[in-house]
Structure formats: structure tokens, C-alpha cells
Amino acid sequence: MENESNYDLYTRLSPRCWSEALVAKAAENELKHRANRGDGEARMLLELHQLEPAAKPLFGHVAHARHKKMRSYKYIYTLHLKFGN
């Protein structure tokens, strides 16, 4: 990841699946490392990513929707796996 441009790392920050989430975390860490070393572009891209609204919650959130006609609630649970300790 050290050889990739800041914009390439920025495009990897929005994962769509579990394997892309691992790459996204590595890309975020690399951008943070570059920003801490004084790279203004990396800092700007991290701030832009924080301002973007999330498309949908990925892990561990409960989303509920209320059906207008039936006046009932529908709960959707998303689960995540933890590996290691």
C-alpha cells in the first residue's frame, strides 16, 4: 500500500463486502500514517471520507422501518463475526 497514490487509497475506503473491509482498514491506516507525516492531501481525503454519509450500516447495527399501512415495525439485524481472542 505504500506505493499507491493517495487517491487510490481514498477509493478503497468504502467497502462493499468483508474482504474489501480489510483492505479499507489498511488503506485508512496508510492515509492516517501519511497525514501524520505532514501529507496535506492525505489529511484532506480523510476529512472528506468522514463527511460522506454512509450508504448503509455494515456491522452490528439494528435498522428498523415502519410500514405506513400496517402500523407495525420490522426489525432487521445485521451480525458480524469476530476472529481471534
Describe this protein's structure:
By secondary structure, the protein is of the alpha+beta class. The chain has one domain (6-77). The chain is 44% helix and 14% strand. It is built from three helices and two strands, in the order H-H-H-E-E. The protein has helices spanning 6-11, 18-36, 40-51, and strands at residues 62-67, 72-77. It has a two-stranded antiparallel sheet with strand order 1-2. A hairpin with a 4-residue loop joins strand 1 and strand 2. Helix 2 packs across helix 3. The longest helix has 19 residues, at 18-36. The protein is globular and about 45 Å long.
In a few lines, what is going on in this structure?
The protein has helices spanning 6-11, 18-36, 40-51, and strands at 62-67, 72-77.
Layout: helices, strands, pairs:
Layout: H1 6-11, H2 18-36, H3 40-51, E1 62-67, E2 72-77
Antiparallel strand pairs: 1-2
Helix pairs in contact: 2-3
